[in-house]
Design brief:
about 170 residues, mainly alpha, Rna Polymerase Sigma Factor, Chain: A, Arc Repressor Mutant, subunit A, 2 domains
Amino acid sequence: MPHVERLFRHAMWLERERSNAEDLVQETLVQAMQSFHRFTPGTNCRAWLLSILHHVHLNRLRKLGRLTVDSDIEERISHTVPFAAPIADHLTDEDMLAALRSLPSHHQQVILLCDVDELTYKEAAAALDIPVGTVMSRLHRGRELLRIQLIRTGAVTSASRRGSETA
């Protein structure tokens, strides 16, 4: 049970409610126990459990009919400016979490798995059941969207201004 805390943290991010996250982790662990014969010893158990968690989460969303597709993502990406403004050191956790929550869920998932849970591209791809190239492109686009969102909300510009005022 060493991975339960990380599973729960990830489930809380996906579900946003404690009771739903607890249910998701419990269902994930039940599925893992039932399919433990499929686990390959010597591989990353945390990545295997996270992939089960994502499958259970997506199945729950499909069942509820709440799975939404962000159809205008390509349009928003095409309006990005090639210049990337520097992210200031004065960002608060709340600024970052609010910006991350505003991203489409498929970008959130990849950013969380790669940047927060520190999975490799290959492990994240296995967890999400998508190709490694898709993980890489979603991570790149997600980071760019995150930067743009931080600029839009003023977290970057106000923090940059604070830094220039003190200089």
